[in-house]
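Check my protein:
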Amino acid sequence: MATSSPDFMSVVLATTYTTSDVRERLALLRRFLEDTFFAGAATPTVERLEEFLDTANAGAETRSVLARWLGAWAGALARETLYERLRSIERDVSALPVLGIIMPVRLREDEMARLGAWAREHVDPRVLVDSLADPAAVGGCRLIWNGRERDFSLSYFVEKHREELVDAVLEVFTHTTGGKT
């Protein structure tokens, strides 16, 4: 059983921060290489990749990343070992640590890149970020790391301090109405 070389993972980690982007890009790369190798073309080229990505409606960032992956890996991707190599890369990606972040909104690509860069610097240099949108996380976020979830949302802190909030509201009500109900 082959494992992907560290060069494969270093290219993935240098170009992609999220689990969803890695999976999407690996799936596109797999489809492109299948189309290339099993439809008569001998060699995957950046020109063929661009044509393929036109039909797949891939975004600019994904196009750039896949061109970089292809340039870095072209010599190691052969028809005879394609599936073994891709399975190896997928196994290695699955073994990477994941920081889950649940926020009330979906982050833009540039925001995810900033968050991913921060996570690589402060959490783990090989971490991928898994981002989910959940309106219940309003006013903060929830983080999942090493199987533990930490809730930093406003709703969590409101519930945590519920009695204090109710007491404060009653006190304000009492002062504004002069104690009359």
About this structure: The radius of gyration is 24 Å. The mean pLDDT is 88. The beta strands are 98-103, 128-133, 142-145, 148-151.
